Amino acid sequence: MSASDYDAWLPKLIAITEAAGDEIMEIYRDESRFEVEHKADDSPSPPRIEPLTPLSAQAYKS
């Protein structure tokens, strides 16, 4: 790619990343979408993730 190719793509790329960031932040602003649990020291707990079982792991192989 030439420098002029990058010059043409850069403003579009910046606009796309800014729009994506805005959409991501919209999710975090809507507290009804997720729940944060706090530990005794008031620090957040990691999210709960269901472990893979042999049957659920097979779904990822297809």
Sequence-ordered SSE layout with sheet pairings:
Blueprint lengths: L2 H27 L24 H8 L1
Describe the overall structure.
The chain has 62 residues and is an all-alpha fold. The chain is built from 2 helices and no strands.
Give the tally of β-strands.
0
Q: What do the pLDDT scores average to?
A: 77
Distance between the termini: 36 Å
Helicity, as a percent range: 55-70%
Shape: elongated
Detail the poorly predicted runs: none
Contiguous helical run count = 2
Largest sheet: none
Compute the CA-based radius of gyration.
20 Å
Order of helices and strands: HH
Write down the domain tally.
1
How big a fraction of the residues is strand? Answer: under 5%
Structural class based on helices, strands and sheet pairing:
mainly alpha
Task: Give a quick rundown of the structure.
The protein is an all-alpha fold and 62 residues long.
Question: What are the key terms here?
Answer:
56% helix; mainly alpha; 0% strand; single chain; 62 residues; 2 helices
